[in-house]
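Thread: quick sanity check before group meeting

JM: Hey all, I'm pulling together slides for Thursday and realized we never actually wrote out the predicted structure for the chain we discussed last week. Dropping the sequence here so it's in one place. If anyone has concerns about the input, flag it before I start.
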Amino acid sequence: MTAAAISVPKTAAKEAKRERRRRGGWGNAGLLGPFLVFYLLFLVGPLIYDIVMSFFNTSLVLPGLGSFAGLANYRELFSDSRFWQAMWHTILFTLVSTPPLVIIPLFFAIVVNRIKHGQWFFRLAFFLPYILPSAVIALVWTWLYEPGWVSSPNLALYSIVIVTVWWTIGFNFVLYLAGLQDIPRDLYEASALDGAGRWKQTWRLTIPMLGRTITLVTVLQIIASLKIFDQVYLITAGGPNYATRTAIEYIYDTGFTDERVGYASAASLVLFVVILLVSFVWLALVRKQERGV
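JM (edit): ok, ran it. Output follows.
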């Protein structure tokens, strides 16, 4: 067989491969296209517009962006004690609510994972409150807290923490349970043969194997706590005497009650940067864990 005869099939194979890549590229573009459109319209677009508004005196009662303010909104924001009070409430809520929402569902997930029959019932029992609307949760707990709990400035924020733990614990519970079921049973059997009891297995095997899941749950919980709004607004409306007003509620009050949208945009960007930094920390931790494997 001559070299020319051999080159013909090779050329045809290359052309066929290129055609498959071209078709695959169009197919991928068709699948990603709708997502990219929604991503640009509802995420990237509003973010860019928010950045632009933060440099203007935009108001709900005036057309357009309003007059140019430059960095005036940011200068006022960083000297605004009300904003820093709201940020402190947000950080305090995050510090108080994150540990129980990381540890308690982990404990229950470990216990439920050892149950051989009827796990579906516990999954349903833990996850059911999470799917309830925030308005329902607020109505139930407002009735339970009567009288006095949420009217005390010293207790109101911690009352919201209790509501949040009860309401959202099921989501972290399901994440932990999924991570536990990915751990091979052979490891437990081998450790049992070596004389390890359940308590030792939990500390020496289960928790280390759940390292990535614990990191994921912790960071997701911190981000969710930094974005708290619904339960605070519906139960206390930021009161009493602004003792529970968080960053997002401050942004809401400034933008929609005081009608200072430009100033509220600057505040929202500051909160966005804080959440973004938390996300970067999570990425760094995940990469460190992957290098350690």
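AS: nice. Residues 3-53 form the longest helix (51 residues). The chain has a mean pLDDT of 86.
JM: adding both to the slides.
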